[in-house]
């Protein structure tokens, strides 16, 4: 299942919100986007939320990402 994510790194809180109109999600995480640390934290956060293996398919250097949940 592929999911579109809009990431908000360096946030004061960690949360996830589903956007109804296009079945995508906005995710806020505390980690800063330096040396891929935000991507690692995003994967951990989404694994807990979806309870599936998560892989970033595209958008490694962007706030808009496509992930695959297996």
Commentary on this structure:
By secondary structure, this protein is an alpha+beta fold. It has a single domain (2-69), classed as Conserved Hypothetical Protein Mth637, Chain: A (2-Layer Sandwich), CATH 3.30.1200.10. It is built from one helix and five strands. Strands 2-3-1-5-4 form a five-stranded mixed sheet, covered by helices on one side. A hairpin with a 5-residue loop joins β4 (54-58) and β5. The longest helix has 14 residues, at 37-50. The model has no long low-confidence stretch (mean pLDDT 93).
Main attributes of the structure:
single chain; alpha+beta; Conserved Hypothetical Protein Mth637, Chain: A; 1 helix
Query: What strand line-up does the widest sheet have?
Result: 2-3-1-5-4
What number is the mean pLDDT? 93
Into which percentage range does the β-strand content fall? 35-45%
**Helix segment tally:** 1
- Just give the CATH class: Alpha Beta
For CATH, the homologous superfamily is named as YggU-like
Tell me what the CATH architecture is: 2-Layer Sandwich
The CATH topology turns out to be Conserved Hypothetical Protein Mth637, Chain: A
What does the largest sheet look like?
5 strands, mixed
Helix content, binned percent: 10-25%
Helix/strand order: EEEHEE
Mass-distribution shape: globular
Low-confidence stretches: none
**CA-atom Rg in angstroms:** 11 Å
List how many beta strands DSSP finds. 5
For the termini, the CA-CA separation is 7 Å
**Class inferred from helices and paired strands:** alpha+beta
Number of separate structural domains: 1
């Amino acid at each position: 299942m592929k999911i579109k994510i809009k990431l908000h790194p360096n946030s004061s809180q960690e949360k996830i919100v589903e956007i109804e109109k296009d079945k995508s999600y906005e995710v806020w995480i505390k980690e800063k986007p330096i040396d891929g640390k935000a991507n690692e934290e995003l994967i951990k956060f989404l694994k807990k939320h979806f309870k599936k293996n998560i892989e970033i398919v595209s958008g490694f250097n962007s706030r808009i990402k496509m992930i695959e949940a297996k």
